[in-house]
Automatic annotation (TrEMBL):
It catalyses: L-tyrosyl-[protein] + ATP = O-phospho-L-tyrosyl-[protein] + ADP + H(+). PANTHER family: TYROSINE-PROTEIN KINASE. PROSITE patterns: F_BAR, PROTEIN_KINASE_ATP, PROTEIN_KINASE_DOM, PROTEIN_KINASE_TYR, SH2. It is an enzyme of class 2 (transferase). It holds the Pfam family PK_Tyr_Ser-Thr. This is Tyrosine-protein kinase. InterPro entries: AH/BAR_dom_sf, F_BAR_dom, FCH_dom, Fes/Fps/Fer_SH2, Kinase-like_dom_sf, Non-receptor_tyrosine_kinases, Prot_kinase_dom, Protein_kinase_ATP_BS. Keywords: ATP-binding, Coiled coil, Kinase, Nucleotide-binding, Phosphoprotein, SH2 domain, Transferase, Tyrosine-protein kinase. Residues 419-438, 458-486 are annotated as: Disordered. The keyword tRNA processing does not apply.
Length: 872
């Protein structure tokens, strides 16, 4: 429905006028707003230019040379300046738009006026005619009345006049005729004016008004079109998504995208690279104790009755702190593993897969691993102090005392004090070298061997000592498949040959570590004698199981005799014999009675049982020798532990022996025994003639066949399958830690880092981790399982097929770690069977659970070998 038919009424006409006025006002408002926007944009452009200029005031000095981030920033600011210019241009265009609005509103005003005038004009004619009709009608009425009156007068005169003539009648007739004529004329004029009015009204309604309205509609609509165009233009100049802005934004994105964290410091590090800083040296200032006689020794804790309580409290505190650190680490690891599964080296968080999400996950992963490392360091630092205090307390035998046994502590402190007094006595007598320990003192008097001999007396226990309980036997059996060299002496008489040096006594266990000693003493009354080195002095200790474990240091008297609380004896054997036969407590307060001597186990060899022949290798703790077992003439390999290493290291050294003791498999190097009777402590193993697999691969790279390489992989898998079945995590599987015999058979060796657990969380520092062989979850979270060994096995396979190449060659540990985390895997070594490389890749699956277990690996390799054999 258009204006022409719908808006004919007067009211509609008036509304149309009002509407046009409103439109004009709206147009005015828009114009003003756009003017304001143009102003705003101009000001914004000016501010943006200032921002860009401010941003460009960056340090152009050398410090940031080569920095991608600073380069990107500069380009970013340039783009911002472009953006400002674009804003300014658009603002100017908006001003042009405002001018257009001015013109449009002027034209619109004119059009409104024209409409109003035209409407008035056509309406005026109709009005005029209407008035005319009314006027004519009233004229008509007036003439009609005059006519009627004259007619009546004429009729009256006519009737009255006898002759129908006369002057008066003529006069009346004349007037009557004139009135009649006037009426008729008026009548005709009225008729004509009505007819004209009808015509004009018809035209007004059907032609003129619709024509005017139609025209007006088209005029107004054309204004709307122009109006819309102007608005579109205005919007266009304010469109921030316009191509120009998009291009700028794209360029900004690109320059920011050019920031590359891994390259940022390339030029900088290249310029400033220096060798790592030399460590700060913290050293005990020896001059402090130069003039102090007595027991204070540099870098050594002093344990005496004055400090023991303090040390124990400190130990408790530190142990608490260590536990605290461990708990925090576990929580952190649980949080990481529980919250978000690890895949491809990065954490996929719940639903967040935007690049920012991944980045923030990476950051949080980094942060967690940093926090974890900080906690590990803290724990390691505290643990070091714990170990130091424990070691010091251990050596005086008070660390293992159960609570409520402070009496024994006092006793042992008494011993220490006695010893100290004795020393002082000796010093004051000036008859012997001051400060020498028992062993040194014995040596001084003619050597350990002679002086530890007894006096030719045998002694037998009067009462029958308690037999070993099933528990004792089973415990011994558990750790040693080999039968004990001599049966437990529990039910036999204990014979102390006077001709035997102490270290040949079956119940003398040499420097057997304390953990092992404790393991051997199971029932009240079980005892053994051992040696401990404290402050580089040797001390002989009697260890007894009595309400826990107690360790008594044998005291030397000024005369060179040996005693506890009772009488002194000329030899340690006699002292022990006395304690055993008399059934008197070693000390009154401990109440400990000696009931059953515990003998060395089969694997506790004597140092003199082996003859070292030639050095065949160098290990972490000391040299490795080819040697001969005196008893069987068997060729063996002997790992020695440097005497100078601290006790803690010695304990670590023996860890390998403790683990190997339990295993028996053709692809695991066999333990024959450990020698802890005296220094250097040694581990005796089967001799594997080809030596280290890594050296072997490198030396024989030309002669090795694919079949032999696959055989090596199968051997290693067999050994590892066996270890996995025993819940042993090797943690350092690599070609350098495998041995090879002359038939190319591979044996897994070097169990220094192994742990017997299904899952092992590392709590000490990661310092010596073989990064390139270690699975990502172990590196990132310290979480070790057999599946980490599977990862290392993949690297071992790679070493075998690359004939001893270094993995990730040319990459530092941290670079390799970084690349692995982003999904990089080493390419296949030359001439590796495809299936073997596929197996390597499976072993290197980022998700540990997707890696094959050793059982499966063994079966795959075995099947491939079988297929190869059959094809020949
Ligand atoms: P560590 O564990 O102290 O680092 P290794 O086990 O690596 O010591 O031994 C060092 C080297 O000694 C080996 O690379 C190897 O050449 C040699 N070796 C070690 N054990 C044996 C053995 N049982 N038979 C033959 N050679 C061995």
């Amino acid at each position: 429905m258009g204006f022409s038919s719908a808006l004919q009424s007067r009211a509609a006409h008036e509304a149309l006028i009002v509407r046009q006025d409103a439109e004009l006002r709206l147009m005015e408002t828009m114009k003003r707003s756009i003017q304001m926007k143009a102003k705003c944009d101009k000001e914004y452009a000016i501010s943006l230019t200032a921002v860009a200029q401010q941003g460009l005031k960056i340090d152009r000095a050398d410090e940031m040379q080569g920095s991608l981030i600073s380069k990107s920033w500069r380009s970013y600011m340039d783009e911002l300046d472009h953006q400002a210019k674009q804003f300014k241009f658009n603002a100017e265009q908006l001003e042009v738009v405002c001018d257009k609005f001015t013109h449009l509103s002027q034209d619109k005003r004119k059009a409104r006026k024209a409409y109003q005038e035209e409407h008035a004009k056509i309406a005026a004619r109709l009005n005029h005619l209407t008035d005319e009709v009314v006027r004519k009608k009233s004229e008509y009425q007036k003439h009609l009345e005059g006519y009627k009156a004259l007619r009546t007068r004429f009729e009256e005169n006519y009737i009255k006049a006898p002759s129908r003539s006369g002057r008066k009648l003529d006069d009346v007739r004349d007037k009557y005729q004139k009135a009649c004529r006037k009426l008729h004329l008026t009548h005709n004029e009225y008729v004509l004016s009505i007819t004209e009015a009808i015509e004009v009204e018809k035209d007004f309604r059907n032609v003129l008004l619709p024509g005017l309205l139609e025209h007006q509609q088209s005029v107004q609509e054309s204004f709307i079109l122009l109006w819309r165009n102007i608005l579109q233009e205005a919007a266009q100049y304010g469109d921030l998504t316009a191509d120009k802005y998009k291009e700028i934004q794209k360029r900004i994105d690109t320059v920011i995208g050019n920031i590359n964290p891994t390259e940022e410091y390339g030029e900088f590090t290249e310029k400033y690279k220096t060798s790592p800083t030399t460590p700060l040296l913290f050293q005990f200032d020896e001059t402090l104790i130069q003039d102090i006689p007595g027991k204070l020794q540099s870098s050594t804790l002093t344990v005496d009755n004055l400090t023991v309580d303090w040390l124990r409290n400190r130990l408790q505190e530190l142990e608490g702190a260590v536990r605290d650190c461990q708990e925090k680490q576990l929580k952190m690891i649980e949080h990481v593993n529980g919250g978000s599964p690890v895949a491809n080296g990065s954490i996929i968080s719940n639903g967040s897969n935007t690049s920012n999400g991944i980045q923030s996950n990476k950051d949080s992963l980094c942060r967690q691993s940093k926090d974890l490392n900080a906690l590990r360091c803290q724990e390691k630092q505290k643990q070091k102090l714990v170990d130091m205090i424990k070691c010091a307390l251990n050596e005086v035998g008070c660390e293992e005392l159960p609570s409520g046994c402070d009496d024994d502590l006092t006793l042992e402190q008494n011993f220490i004090e006695n010893g100290y007094n004795n020393e002082q006595q000796q010093r004051s007598n000036s008859t012997s070298s001051p400060g020498l320990g028992i062993m040194n003192e014995l040596m001084r008097r003619g050597g350990v061997l002679t002086l530890l001999r007894g006096r030719g007396r045998h002694f037998k226990r009067k009462s029958t000592p308690q037999p070993a309980t099933p528990m004792t036997r089973s415990r011994q059996g558990r750790f040693n498949k080999l039968q004990p060299r001599s049966q437990s002496l529990g039910s036999l008489s204990i014979s102390l040959s006077t001709n035997r040096p102490l270290y040949e006594e079956e119940w003398f266990h040499g420097v057997l570590p304390r953990e092992e000693v404790v393991r051997l003493l199971n029932n009240d009354g079980d005892f053994l004698v051992r040696e401990t080195i404290r402050n580089e002095e040797s001390q002989i200790v009697l260890s007894v199981c009595w309400n826990g474990h107690k360790h008594f240091i044998v005291q030397t008297t000024g005369e060179g005799n040996f005693r506890f609380e009772g009488p002194p004896f000329a030899s340690i054997q006699e002292l022990i014999m006395h304690q055993y036969h008399s059934e008197l407590p070693v000390t009154v307060k401990s109440g400990a009675i000696l009931r059953r001597p515990v003998c060395r186990e089969r694997w506790e060899l004597s140092n003199d049982d082996v003859v070292l022949l030639e050095r065949i290798g160098r290990g972490n703790f000391g040299d490795v020798y080819k040697a001969k077992l005196k008893s069987t003439k068997l060729d063996v390999a002997v790992k020695t532990c440097r005497m100078t290493l601290p006790d803690e290291q010695k304990r670590k050294f023996l860890q390998e022996g403790r683990i190997l003791k339990q295993y028996d498999h053709p692809n695991i190097v066999k333990l024959i025994g450990i020698c802890v009777q005296k220094q250097p402590i040694m581990i005796v193993m089967e001799l594997v003639l080809g030596g280290s697999l890594l050296t072997y691969l490198r030396k024989n790279s030309n002669g090795l066949t694919t079949r032999q390489q696959m055989g090596m992989c199968r051997d290693a898998a067999a050994g590892m399958r066996y270890l996995e079945s025993k819940n042993c995590i090797h943690r350092d599987l690599a070609a350098r830690n495998c041995l090879v015999d002359l038939e190319h058979s591979v044996k897994i060796s070097d169990f220094g880092m192994s742990r017997e657990e299904e899952e092992y969380i590392v709590s000490d520092g990661m310092k010596q981790i073989p990064v390139k062989w270690t699975a990502p979850e172990a590196l990132n979270f310290g979480k070790y399982t057999s599946l980490c060994d599977v990862w290392s096995y993949g690297i071992l396979m790679w070493e075998i097929f690359s004939k001893g190449d270094t993995p990730y060659s040319g990459m530092t540990n941290s670079r390799a770690r970084e690349r692995i985390d982003t999904g990089y895997r080493m390419p296949t070594p030359k001439s590796t069977p495809e299936e073997m490389y596929r197996l390597m890749l499976q072993c290197w699956a980022a998700d540990a659970e997707s890696r094959p277990h050793f059982d499966e690996i063994y079966n795959v390799v075995d099947a491939l070998i079988l297929r190869l054999d059959n094809s020949h």
